[in-house]
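[READ THE FOLD]
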Amino acid sequence: MSKRKKRNKRSTSRLLSRKIWWAGGIFVAAVYIIAFYYFFVSPTGFRWHALYGDVTYPKGEGYEIQGIDISHYQGDIDWEALRNAMIQKAPIRFVIIKATEGASIVDENFEDNFYNAREYGFIRGAYHFYSIKSDAKAQAYFFLDKVKLEDGDLPPVLDVEHKPNEQSTEDFQKDVLTWLHIIEDRYHVKPIIYTYYKFKQKYLSDNRFDDYPYWIAHYYVEKMEYKGEWKFWQHTDAGKLPGIKGYVDFNIYNGSYYDLKQLTIKSENNSEE
């Protein structure tokens, strides 16, 4: 074989190896992107829309009662600045605060946020993030141990966004109802269920949940597309307000300010037996 042929052969071999290397790299990247979407984006896809657009404010009548929900992700809040903040020229009426997650996690800013929300004149609420890795009963009692709601606070909130793949829908619903019933027995009010509207339709469309107030997450639409009854609508996760660094969720209460106050816990409900 001539030297030229040998060089051509080596060149072809290197070119082929380079193509194989690039093809392998593209394949690995594609697998990574698909896996990332499946495990992290898809389960709570509605939370990722802020990456793609600005805040869209709902249009229509009945959207005047504004509120926010917060957790440690908002960092240290300047409550004095937040006190007079406005959303679409309307005052902030309520603040719902992350309290607990699973059966062992307390949000690191919960105590400060919970205290300050009332001190600065907001109607406050507390929510529990439901974990598929913890027993529902243990989660309920953990919430009751760490959160002490008072007169004038919103009913307890269950944030449920995931269902274990290996668990049947019926068993999952039983677990969710376990949490709700334990909390209801303590406060004698129906807890609020937070979820996104597709999750509600797929996993919680059972008449046993019909009596619970709903807080529906549905972003970047001008009107609520969920057809059932709802009390709160989380319409964006890309809100900006004085006193809060970064983004914050904006919410609307479906009713008047009087109705919102009527929803809160009263002395006759919030009594130990």
